[in-house]
Amino acid sequence: MAESTTVTKTAIIRGRVFVLGDNVDTDQIIPAQYLNLVPTIPEEYEKLGSHALVGLLDAPRFVPEGATKTLYPILVAGRNFGCGSSREHAPIAIGAAGGRAVVAESYARIFFRNCVATGELYPVESPTRLVGEFVIGDEAELDLDASTITNLRTGKRFALSPLGDARPVIDAGGLFAYARRSGMIPGAPTSGAGVADSGASVPVNRAVED
C-alpha cells in the first residue's frame, strides 16, 4: 500500500451489536420520505442518521427516539442485506447514525458497492450464519485485520471473509478520497461545490448507479 493511502481508521471496532434477519431492504434502512435530505449538508447528514432503520417493523429502534446517534456500531444480519433500490442514502444513513460495520451472510451488490464508494460502512461477509449467535445489545469485537468477530458475552469467535481491495478504499473515506490520496485525481478543492461550508467531515462521494 502506498504511503498516500495509509489506513486512517482503526482496525478494531468494539461495541454493542444490533441484530437483523434476512432481506433487510433499503426501504427499511431509510424510507423514501427521507431521501430529500442532502448528505453533504452537515445538519441534514445528521438528520438522515436519526432516521436510520426506522422502516423496520417489530424491532427496537436503531437510533433512540429524539437522538441522532445509535448505541450499536456493529450490525449483524442474515442474507441479502441492503436489497431493493440503489439509493446510496442507505449506507450513509447507517454511517451518519454512528454505525461502523455490517457483518452479514451476503449483500445486495449495489449496497455493497455504495458502502465502498461512500466509505461509510465496512460491509463484511460471514461464511457462518451469525444471527443466532448474537442478541441485540451483546458486546462484540470486530477485527478487520484478522477478519474475525468475537461475541464478548459468550467468548465465541467467528472467522469472516476478508474485505480485500475494498478495505483501503473504505479506510480512506470512500472512492474520491482514496483516489485523491493515491494521486489519481487532484486534491480536494478548498471552496465551491461539494465542500461543506462548516468544514465538517461529511461524505461527498457518490456511487455510480446501474
Question: Keyphrases for this structure?
Answer:
Aconitase, domain 4, alpha/beta, disordered C terminus, 6 helices, globular, 7-stranded mixed beta sheet, 210 residues
Strand content: 5-15%
Number of domains: 1
* Spans where pLDDT lies below 50 across 5 or more residues: 1-8, 189-210
**Arithmetic mean pLDDT:** 87
Give the biggest sheet: 7 strands, mixed
The number of E-state strands comes to: 7
* Spatial order of the strands forming the largest sheet: 4-3-2-1-5-6-7
**Named CATH topology:** Aconitase, domain 4
State the helical fraction.
Answer: 10-25%
Provide a short characterization of the protein structure:
With 210 residues, the protein is an alpha/beta fold. The protein has helices spanning 26-29, 42-50, 89-96, 109-118, 166-172, 175-181, and strands at residues 12-19, 74-76, 101-104, 122-125, 139-143, 148-151, 157-159.
How does this structure look, described?
- The protein has one domain: Aconitase, domain 4.
- It is built from 6 helices and 7 strands; from the N terminus they run E-H-H-E-H-E-H-E-E-E-E-H-H.
- A 7-stranded mixed beta sheet has the order 4-3-2-1-5-6-7.
- Helix 2 crosses helix 3.
- The chain is globular and about 45 Å long.
Write the layout of secondary structure elements.
Elements: E1 12-19, H1 26-29, H2 42-50, E2 74-76, H3 89-96, E3 101-104, H4 109-118, E4 122-125, E5 139-143, E6 148-151, E7 157-159, H5 166-172, H6 175-181
Parallel strand pairs: 1-2, 2-3, 3-4
Antiparallel strand pairs: 1-5, 5-6, 6-7
